[in-house]
Amino acid sequence: MFEFELLATDGAARAGIFHTPHGALHTPVFAPVGTQATVKSLTPRQLQELRASLVLANTYHLYLRPGSQLVRDLGGLHEFMQWPGPILTDSGGFQIFSLRDISKVDADGVTFRSHIDGSKHRFTPEHCIAVQNDLGADVIMALDECPPPHDRAHNERAMARTHAWAVRCHAAHSNPQQALFGIAQGGIFPDLRAESARCIGALDLPGCAIGGLSVGESKADMHAMLDVVLPLLPHHKPRYLMGVGSPEDLVNGVLRGVDIFDCVLPTRMARNHTALTRTGRLNLRNRSFATERTPLAAECDCYCCLHFSRAYLRHLCIADEILASVLLSIHNLHLLQSLMREMRAEIQAGTFQPWAAQFLAAYKPARAQPQALASA
Amino acid sequence: MFEFELLATDGAARAGIFHTPHGALHTPVFAPVGTQATVKSLTPRQLQELRASLVLANTYHLYLRPGSQLVRDLGGLHEFMQWPGPILTDSGGFQIFSLRDISKVDADGVTFRSHIDGSKHRFTPEHCIAVQNDLGADVIMALDECPPPHDRAHNERAMARTHAWAVRCHAAHSNPQQALFGIAQGGIFPDLRAESARCIGALDLPGCAIGGLSVGESKADMHAMLDVVLPLLPHHKPRYLMGVGSPEDLVNGVLRGVDIFDCVLPTRMARNHTALTRTGRLNLRNRSFATERTPLAAECDCYCCLHFSRAYLRHLCIADEILASVLLSIHNLHLLQSLMREMRAEIQAGTFQPWAAQFLAAYKPARAQPQALASA
User: pTM of the full predicted structure?
Assistant: First the structure.
């Protein structure tokens, strides 16, 4: 179980298959985020039609509501949310540290208050694993501390804790049906990133994650950190870049050797009435779309683009209809799924490098960089 | 076009086929409501999977946004909302008269302010038809005035206006691809109801509607008015009871000879986290569902009941997830569609009377009667 087969490499980019108890993941893979055990706006059937394979759910949210023991008693996350494919749960660390005002970290763990009812809770590494054992995802994450990326002293302390906690999580985890990944941190500091990559990569775990990116640092910093970290991670294990999911970030990540991604971006953008395209973004509330009979994207073969006009989509957005979120979520996820399929094929054909250069040259990045899209 | 074939009768109940340019409607039929050219929460594909046939859209809403001329220029409502089956538009009268504070009626028409931006508009019978001609539904409605049901003087005035407007609408309408129905009014007054039924029934129109019911009157009054009106309407034309759609009201309407229904109830209830069942209603936010692994309704074969537990549905409701609205809309509409299919079969088998008696005996009506569910 959790064998990772490398099928092809093209520069640093890799195409592979990661075997899980709920099926084989063809990597590089993008995971839609189902924060509260539902990928917002979509049914599992719609997700399957989009050929999504891996889905992420949030430990922090599900621990608080409906409760991880209840999910266990109901048969685990797959049964609960009726997702037959692989599921990954994060550790909850990112959410807890995003709520800095209501959380307090010490060497042994973190104490926090629920954003729902203010109740007090505590996660130690051992408790974090017990909660994820209850949820029952195929891939689970070690508890980590994710500090602001530019604060060196804080990143030094947090990294040391994250490493110690990864070891404790490893010791606490015994279910062979769940793969535990450690998380490398280190902010925007190359030496810390290198140290963290070596430390997490040295643990006897089936995969490695890169945390603390796409949390407010510049694109240049993100790329520089990936350039430091990825060559230091074990070649034969899948590498998971957490909370990253814009089309350009996916291509840049794959170029550097990332195998797994997740992000709320496609579904959150959809609810904010923004469509992703292969060259940038469209705000569907724009008046110029009011009379356009053409689909969102001419070349796209998703359900939204095969049926509906830009004029209708704009109407749904302006009228604040749920169907706007549904159709734009379908389109945005279809775009990312297609992009991942295309990258896998290009890597296997050995043509990924020029393909990626061409894609990135045509892509117009969003004007303002959205902050902390990894948050749920 | 617009031929109505009566296939079978059972007491006053009728099973038939109403032919429209976008396909044959098997009656009695229930139409889900797509107020703003979308049945809230659902894709057209999901509606087709539910075997919905007729869909209603609201003239008032679409006239204001995105604008009926724009819908015409984009190819009409079927093309705009991608609904391949028959569509019915109401006249907008009900919505305008629901906004009593911002509308003013005179003999020639009604002046009203937009609920969106306060802009001033005027509907005459002729304008109402022109707007519906632009929208392009298969069945369109004459402009009517729908007063509070218990005010006799108001109902007398409004009925006279409604009759005069129906004649003007008839004269103004010339598109043979759209069937114009007149609307009988009369509040809770049997003599007014009888007069209105005779007057509307005498017009050379392909169908007759009954308005001003399910707007705050008692169930007993509704049934009494149906008992007065239906025998006076032409036997060979479809009869449409506007804004009615709870399971018991559908059975009571079919028992009395109604052929067409519409209501926001199934989708609005879904968004309020209430499920319809064959015997009553379930509030999915109820704590008692938190640990239940069983489906919403054991005998139901909708997508929601085939896959998801009550515990998961409750979680989605409490977490305020869009998927709660989607799944409960699917369940509620599936229930009504199944109920209509079953009634058609029972009428054709000549067993509808005992079936209806048994259904109504088992049905526990909602504690509080929801007011004015016809409103959009």
Answer: 0.96
